[in-house]
Fold this protein.
Amino acid sequence: MISQFFVLSQRGDNIVFRDYRGEVQKETAEIFFRKVKFWKEDGQEEAPPVFNVDGVNYFHVKVVGLLFVATTRINLSPSFVFELLQRIARVIKDYLGVLNEDSLRRNFVLVYELLDEVIDFGYVQTTSTEVLKSYVFNEPIVVDSAHLSPLGPASLFMQGTKRMPGTAVTKSVVANDPSGRKREEIFVDIIEKISITFSSSGYILTSEIDGTIQMKSYLTGNPEIRLALNDDLSIGRGGRSVYDYRSSIGSGVVILDDCNFHESVRLDSFEAEKTLSLVPPDGEFPVMNYRMTQEFKPPFRINALIEEAGPLKAEVILKVHAEFPSSITANTISMQMPLPKYTMRASFELETGAVGQTTDFKEANKKLEWNLKKIVGGSEHTLRARLTFSQESHGNITKESGPVSMTFTIPMYNASKLQVKYLQIAKKSGTYNPYRWVRYVTLSNSYVARL
């Protein structure tokens, strides 16, 4: 049971606000944004996803640069509220096609109608786009997707400066095409978030992949879909010994620890043929979520070193090597490294001919930042930083520095090697040949290297 729901821009502007129960003060949006913007508690730079101010619990998630927030005075499960906020964002995107500040402002009547159907007096009714189509009758005002923000969903599938085919995934599932023609398309996206911790010598200490197979269908008549995955896919260890499990690493076998499926998926032939059958509902939805902790080849290797170079000086060397093929390019790479608290200045030296790289020293929180616009597979990049301290180091500067954290996006690459072998549409017609788009992307969840 939630009291309020609102959406804020990055500037703190209140775009959408709905008070369901009238039990919390009206100024919560302003209180929330001020608290998040100037968060200084617990030694953290960013506000946690849930916190309490004057007896009001604030839950928030950031979706394509917008803050989706719910408030309540009762003790609710955070995972429940976070899932609700993500589903509300997904429903709004299904209806508007593009989720950004402009589309929300232009379609505020439709958005409020959706919110009133999704939540009634603080209680969730439904978050299904298919069910909502029976109750919501406003037509969306289409926003031009050609001017999408870099934070937009379509930007996940940028390969260098060339956009991957099928940006029509930003179409609304309910709006009529102005030309009167409907392009038959179906999108399947395999999105993987990687968590890896490297030791100081470069060995992998922990590794995990959280993946999802997302689908969005623009097919008329809701035909049945058959999605075939790897023949050598295995769920769990299946009674294997530890030796068998380890010996399968690198042999091409894909072993997932566990997975779950959308309610529309039928698993009759999954065990024997590794095929999923379903009639896709309207809107974007996860066909399958999975987790993998079997060893896999990391997309990047990070080497970090810090050593004293004098009484008040030290030198940092960061190296990153791309382990994926040269035909693939990673985008928007950012590396951060906490430095000793007595660091005063940092000067940087990039490799000769470096293009699209920026460096910065955040004096307020004593952090080194290194941003790279793109990294081509197989390449290696190095950064040298010379630090100046305000006092002589009396401790171990290695222990007072790091770890190095990294964020990145790699289109058309997935570390688990899970593949869609074929996408079959059960609609018998010689002239019916819809467009099928299968896309892959790998994101960083927690990519850390210790010093």
User: Anything to note?
Assistant: The chain has three domains: 4-132, 184-297+413-449, 300-411. The chain is about 15% helix and 45% strand. Residues 148-168, 238-251 have pLDDT under 50 and may be disordered.
